[in-house]
């Protein structure tokens, strides 16, 4: 049964005073669509989303909404002028009786609706914009980088909200795991053209590579044909000038066709050079703690980080990840315990606030400024890993064109600012990389390249990130912070941490995970105060974590049973395999996964219930 279109763009053309951003673009979003919108930084993803939202008017073409369709757009930089609090902004389009919806969403996204707009951080503003969209519940949701500034727990909550919604949605995101879990179709912007595939982001790269391979084959054939025709023209045209001018004109047409082809944008020429090897010990912390006022950020934490380790720091926003990172790098003194830094350390820092680049400078000045961000006069060259390079030439390696070199940093997109900062820190050799939320706003191709570089980097990497896929690909150790002052070291990346913790979901009541048995770097868990006992209560054999798990399992089992029932209904269609073989295959795979998860959950519940009932 065909689905009704909720939004249709037809023959859209759009320019901003120069080359067209889009020309002759057409696309349809249908009921129930769950679409990933992907493309390189600067390809026009956010612009297209604003056209879809009706916020940017196209030069030509039409935008048509289905009957009764409402559209909501979550932008990266929401305008909150005129609102006193974040909650007032988030509830601005709701009736007074519906304002409770903002409070419900705010709890999941973890922000305070009473926070003043004037003092709110960029992350809090973005969470309020996301809350506004979810509370309004439009027919079509347009989400531009919704996971930026969300911690992993809030991302998991958002995933569940989007997984169960009946609304259609289009998502721009750099978070692979988020897109893999949620999307069923992909819109790909490539050189002003938008292609659609009826498969989610998990299949995007194979699809993209196939299209590029076909393009390369066609270009190769065209070049061979031009070469053959050009040889004929040189060797035989003088004897047959009048009879074969048509063939000459055909050769000119072939050359014009090749000239009109838009070359694919390459990847940034990112490269890291390791400075002189650091000592074998990079950082050693023993029993460190930190508090701000009455709030304990960290207590009794120990870790040894050696040369070549790649350590990820994870946990909810506000848990103290950046504070711990600053202590381990010597930027901040602990209140207690000792930190010893190794020898010959050359650190390069990528901070989440991008404070290493000044917004009031242009790109040229930003690249030639020193560590104190003082501009070095009229310098037109910088030292790149020991070799002098012209500023513009080096910027081109990071995909900035000549015109952008004199453009203000403030005019750049979030992804372009991140790329500029990478260019700045990669110009100098280093043996310790400190990366605080480096993945925000980067496109998938740049992220892929950064992952490869970090994997091959022979120095040490300290990484704060909420990107689960990125952590899995990069980290060899994961430090999990719970927000109550506890931090524990685990071997491996994010998935390894979940396996060792024994719980693939985050609880809103955070409990301290168990350390890796036998781990030399595992922190000693802080001693817990004994829980008060009811005088008539029977002693339970369950730990705090096991008790919570036992309470949560029935709901998880019920959810899995409901999903299995829905998949069973879908697969009961005898014509599904013939009509939609890909959908049949996906549903079969999902059914197997859900059944395996259900069996494991039931077995776990039985084991915990028996343990709880034991005398």
Q: Notable features of this structure?
A:
615 residues; alpha/beta; Rossmann fold; Helix Hairpins; six-stranded mixed beta sheet; 18 helices; 38% helix; globular
Question: Please, could you describe this protein's structure?
Answer:
- This protein is α/β, with parallel strands linked by helices.
- Among the domains are: 276-346 and 429-527, 3-Layer(aba) Sandwich (Rossmann fold), CATH 3.40.50.300; 356-427, no CATH class; 544-613, Helix Hairpins (Orthogonal Bundle).
- The chain is 38% helix and 20% strand.
- It is built from 18 helices and 20 strands.
- It has helices spanning 45-53, 86-90, 100-109, 122-136, 152-164, 176-182, 204-236, 245-260, 321-328, 363-368, 391-397, 414-426, 444-456, 468-474, 494-501, 544-571, 576-579, 581-613, and strands at 5-15, 20-30, 34-38, 60-65, 71-74, 140-144, 168-172, 185-190, 193-197, 281-292, 295-306, 310-314, 336-341, 347-350, 381-384, 387-390, 432-436, 460-464, 477-481, 487-491.
- The chain has a 6-stranded mixed sheet with strand order 5-6-7-3-8-9, sandwiched between helices. The chain has a 6-stranded mixed sheet with strand order 14-17-18-12-19-20, sandwiched between helices.
- A hairpin with a 2-residue loop joins strand 15 (381-384) and strand 16.
- It is globular.
- The termini are far apart.
- 33% of the residues are buried.
């Amino acid at each position: 049964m065909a689905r009704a279109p909720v939004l249709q763009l037809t023959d859209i053309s759009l320019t901003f005073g120069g080359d067209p951003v889009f020309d002759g673009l057409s696309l349809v979003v249908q009921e129930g669509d769950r679409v990933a919108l992907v493309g390189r930084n600067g390809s026009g993803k956010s612009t297209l989303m604003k056209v879809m939202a009706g916020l940017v008017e196209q030069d030509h073409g039409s935008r048509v909404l289905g009957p009764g369709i409402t559209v909501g757009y979550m932008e990266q930089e929401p305008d909150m002028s005129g609102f006193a609090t974040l909650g007032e902004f988030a509830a601005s389009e709701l009736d007074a009786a519906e304002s409770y919806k903002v409070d419900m969403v705010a709890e999941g996204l973890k922000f305070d609706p009473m926070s003043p707009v004037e003092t709110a951080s960029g992350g809090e503003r973005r969470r309020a914009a996301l809350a506004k969209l979810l509370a309004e519940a439009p027919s079509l949701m347009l989400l531009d980088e919704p996971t930026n500034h969300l911690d992993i727990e809030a991302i998991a909550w958002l995933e569940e909200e989007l997984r169960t919604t009946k609304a259609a949605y289009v998502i721009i995101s750099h978070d692979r795991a988020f897109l893999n879990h949620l999307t069923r179709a992909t819109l790909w912007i490539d050189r002003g053209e938008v292609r659609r595939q009826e498969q989610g982001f998990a299949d995007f790269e194979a699809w993209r590579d196939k299209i590029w391979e076909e393009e390369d084959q066609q270009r190769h054939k065209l070049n061979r044909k031009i070469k053959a025709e050009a040889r004929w023209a040189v060797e035989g045209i003088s004897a047959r000038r009048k009879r074969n001018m048509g063939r000459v004109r055909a050769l000119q047409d072939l050359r014009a066709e090749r000239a009109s082809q838009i070359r694919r944008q390459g990847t940034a020429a990112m490269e890291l050079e390791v400075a002189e090897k650091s000592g074998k010990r990079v950082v050693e912390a023993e029993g460190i703690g930190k508090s701000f006022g009455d709030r304990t950020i960290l207590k009794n934490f120990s870790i040894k980080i050696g040369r070549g380790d790649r350590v990820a720091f994870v946990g909810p926003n506000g848990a103290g990840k950046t504070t711990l990172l600053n202590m381990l790098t010597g930027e901040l003194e602990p209140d207690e315990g000792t930190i010893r830094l190794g020898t010959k350390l050359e650190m390069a820092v990528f901070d989440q606030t991008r404070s290493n680049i000044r917004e009031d400078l242009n790109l040229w000045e930003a690249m030639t400024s020193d560590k104190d961000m003082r501009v070095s006069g009229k310098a037109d060259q910088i030292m790149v890993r020991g070799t002098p390079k012209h500023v513009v030439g080096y910027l081109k390696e990071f995909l900035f064109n000549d015109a952008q070199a004199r453009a203000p940093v403030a005019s750049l997109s979030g992804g372009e600012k991140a790329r500029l900062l990478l260019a700045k820190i990669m110009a100098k050799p280093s043996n310790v990389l400190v990366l605080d939320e480096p993945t925000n706003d980067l496109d998938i191709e740049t992220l892929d390249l950064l992952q490869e570089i970090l994997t091959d980097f022979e120095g040490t990497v300290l990484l704060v990130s909420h990107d689960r896929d990125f952590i899995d690909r990069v980290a060899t150790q994961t430090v999990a912070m719970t927000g109550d002052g506890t931090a524990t070291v685990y071997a491996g990346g994010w998935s390894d941490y979940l396996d060792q913790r024994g719980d693939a979901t985050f609880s809103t009541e955070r409990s301290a995970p168990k350390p890796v048995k036998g781990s030399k770097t595992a922190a000693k868990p802080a001693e817990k105060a004994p829980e008060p006992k009811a005088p008539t209560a029977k002693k339970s054999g369950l730990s705090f974590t096991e008790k919570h798990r036992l309470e949560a399992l029935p709901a998880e089992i019920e959810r899995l049973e409901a999903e299995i029932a829905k998949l069973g209904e879908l697969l009961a269609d005898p014509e599904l395999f013939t009509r939609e073989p890909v959908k049949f295959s996906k549903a079969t795979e999902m059914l197997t996964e859900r059944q395996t998860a259900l069996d494991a959950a039931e077995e776990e519940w039985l084991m915990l219930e028996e343990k709880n009932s034991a005398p």
